[in-house]
Amino acid sequence: MLAAMSEHDHHHDHDHSDLSETELRVRALETILTEKGYVDPAALDLLIETYEKKVGPRNGARVVARAWTDPSFRERLLKDATPAIRELGYAGRQGEHIIAVENTPETHNMVVCTLCSCYPWPVLGLPPVWYKSAPYRSRAVNDPRGVLRDFGVALPETTKIRIWDSTAEIRYIVLPMQPQGTSGWSEDKLADLVTRDSMIGTGLPKRPGSA
Amino acid sequence: MDGAHDMGGIDGYGPVKPEPNEPVFHGEWERRAFALTLAMGTPGGWNIDMSRFARENRPADDYLSKSYYQIWLAGLERLMLERGLVAQDEIAAGRVLHPARPVERTLTPERVAVTLGRGGPTEREATAPAKFKVGDRVRAKDIHPPTHTRLPHYARGHLGTVELVHGCHVFPDTNAQGQGENPQWLYTVRFEGRDLWGEGSDPTITVSVDAFEPYLESA
Fold first, then answer.
1. How is chain A split into domains, by residue range?
2. Using H for helix, E for strand and C for coil, what is the string for chain B?
3. Architecture of domain A56-200
4. Same structural domain for residues B67 and B128?
5. Which residues have C-beta within 8 Å of that of residue A211, sequence separation ≥ 6?
6. Residue A118 catalytic?
7. Which of A70, A159, B182, B191 is in Cβ range 3.0-4.6 Å of B174 for a Cys bridge?
C-alpha cells in the first residue's frame, strides 16, 4: 500500500515518512469514498466538530447540576431520563433511550459495556480509551473495587456496588451524590464539580475548593 | 459469537490506565475514521447490529491487537467490501479502480445535525405480551450462537431477577444477519455477584444486564 500511495500524484507533495500504515489507509479510504461520491468531506468535518467541540461531558454535568438544584427535574430524570435530558437540549444518537441511576450513601453505580463501547454520547460525548479497553471491560463486572482503586477511589467496604452492563440500546448515566458543603450553590458552580468519571461511576464529583 | 470482544470477567488484562486530560481523538486519522464510519452508514444502509458484528467477528489476536478506531476501520472496510461499495484491490492500492455503486442517499452537511439528533431509536410496538415482569426470577439461557448476540457469556446459565422492563426493542441477533428487526421484549436482569463469580467473591456486587426475552427462561 505504501508504494501504491507514493505513486498517487495527489500525495506527491507530502512527506509520508512519519505516517503510520493506519494513517495512510484512512487517508486513502477517504479519498476513495469521496471520489466515488459516497461521502462529502464537509459532512465529515461537521461530524468531527460536533463530537470534538459541542457534545461532551459538560452536557452531562449540566444534567447532574440541574438534578441537584431542581427537585422536580431530579424526579423526572430518575423516572424517565430521555425526555428529562431532552429538556436541556441533549438527545439523539447513542442516547435514544437513557436511564439515570442514582448514587446514595448505601449504593454506588458503575456503567460498562463489556461487549463493545456503548456509551451515552449526547450527555458524555465519545468514550475515553480506557472505557473501551480490555482491562475496564473485563474487570468492571467482577472486580469493580479494583477498578475504582485504579482510579484512586476507595469506597466503604459496606457500600453496595451496582454494575450496569450496557448490552442493548439502553444507555446509562450515573447521578452522583452532591458533595457536602455545596447546598445553595448555583447550577453553574455545581456543574464545575461534576466530572465525566463521576457520571460513569469510576469517579466521584470534585469537592468544593478543589474545582 | 464467543469472541474476544465478550470480555466481562476475563482475567489477565491488567489495570485500567486512565489518561489525564485525554483528548477526544488521538490524531487526525482517528477523527477521519470516526467520521467516515458515521457518514458511510447513510449510503451503506447497514444497521448498528451489522456494524457491531463486522467489528467483533475476527480472530482474537486481531481484535486484541487493534486499537478501538482500528477495529472500527476494519469493520467499515468489511461492510463496504461485502456490499461491493469498494473492492479489495482499491483498498490495497489506495485509489479508485472501479466505478462507484449507485447509492440512494449520502450524508450531506445539511443533514448532519438532524441525522445525529434523530439517532436510531430501537423501541417498537409490542406484538405480544411480555413473558416476564419486574421481580420474576429468570435464568439466562446457556446459548452459544456463532453469529451476533448481546447476551454476555458470563451471564449464561445464571439466575437473576427482572428489575426493569423496557418495552419491545429491535432484536440484534436477527437484525445483524439481515433477518429483520424482529422486536423482542427487553429486560434489565440483575445478577448477584456471588452467583456469577462464585464463593469468596465480593458480596456487595450486583451486575445488571439488558437481556432480550429470547435470552431468558423462567426459573
1. 20-54, 56-200
2. CCCCCCCCCCCCCCCCCCCCCCCCCCCHHHHHHHHHHHHHHHHHCCCHHHHHHHHHCCCHHHHHHCCHHHHHHHHHHHHHHHCCCCCHHHHHHCCCCCCCCCCCCCECHHHHHHHHHHCCCCEECCCCCCCCCCCCEEEECCCCCCCCCCCCHHHCCCEEEEEEEEEEECCHHHHCCCCCCCCEEEEEEEEEHHHHHCCCCCCCEEEEEEEEHHHEEEC
3. Alpha-Beta Complex (3.90)
4. no
5. A192, A193
6. yes
7. B182
CA-derived radius of gyration, chain A: 21
Kindly give the pairing relationship between strand A171-175 and strand A98-102: parallel
pLDDT for the residue A209: 84
Show residues of chain B in contact with A142, CB under 8 Å: 8-9, 154, 193, 196-197, 201, 205
Residue B164: give its domain's CATH number. 2.30.30.50
Owning domain of residue B196: 123-218
In chain A, residues with a C-beta closer than 8 Å to the C-beta of B210 are: 165-168, 170
Q: Which residues of chain B register pLDDT less than 70?
A: none
Question: Are A96 and B188 a contacting pair at CB < 8 A?
Answer: no
Q: Is B114 on the interface with A (CB under 8 A)?
A: no
Chain B residues touching residue A130 (CB < 8 angstroms): 16-19
Average pLDDT over all residues of chain A: 92
Select which of A6, A72, A117, A186 is catalytic.
A117
pLDDT of the residue at A38: 98
B111–A contact, CB cutoff 8 A: yes
The contacts of residue A207 (CB under 8 Å, 6+ apart) are: A179, A180, A181, A193
Contact A151 B16 (CB under 8 A): yes
Residue A121 class from Cβ within 10 Å (0-12 exposed, 13-18 middle, 19+ buried)? Answer: buried
**pLDDT tens digits, residue range B114-163?**
999 999 999 999 999 999 999 999 999 999 999 999 999 999 999 999 99
Specify the pTM.
Answer: 0.94
Q: Which of B208, B213, B215 should one mutate to test binding to chain A, selecting the residue with the greatest count of A CBs within 10 A?
A: B208
State the total domains in chain B: 2
Contact list, A151 vs chain B (CB under 8 Å):
16, 18
Closest partner CB to A165 (pick from B8, B108, B118): B8
Closest to A36 (Cβ–Cβ): which among B32, B100, B209? B100
